[in-house]
Amino acid sequence: MRSMHDEHHFAPGILDGDLLRCSGMLGLRPDLSLPADPAAQFTQAFENLRGLLELASLTFADVVEMTSYHVGLRRHFAVFAEVKDRFLEAPHPAWTAVGVVELAVPGALVEIALTARLGTVAPPQN
């Protein structure tokens, strides 16, 4: 993500006390192409976030808040929710979903921003 930082002057994530604040992440592949299929694009966005979390030795279990920005929110909401539930399990973080007209990359359907707490331990799953 160094090229995004250098070219567009933003940090993909910053440490803020005991929090990792992740910038909005699109479903871009490593070659900066975008899957046409909504489920594939949403999955790629979460995989990109997983990579960022791992750089801070975190997982999705450490996520306390998520904001997602959607082009075609109602049209793709069920598919997005299905994909989200493969990455974020109970106890679920706070989540705000916002419908928007467009995102920075043409064809992008979602941008996801996360906040994760450092040093948390996920409670045991029943």
Automatic annotation (TrEMBL):
Superkingdom of origin: Bacteria
One GO CC term on file: cytosol
Listed InterPro entries: RutC-like_sf (IPR035959), YjgF/YER057c/UK114 (IPR006175), YjgH-like (IPR038743)
GO molecular function: deaminase activity
Pfam families reported for this sequence: Ribonuc_L-PSP
Family under the similarity heading: Belongs to the RutC family.
The protein, known as: Enamine deaminase RidA
Organism, scientific name: Mycolicibacterium fallax (Mycobacterium fallax)
Taxonomic classification: Bacteria, Bacillati, Actinomycetota, Actinomycetes, Mycobacteriales
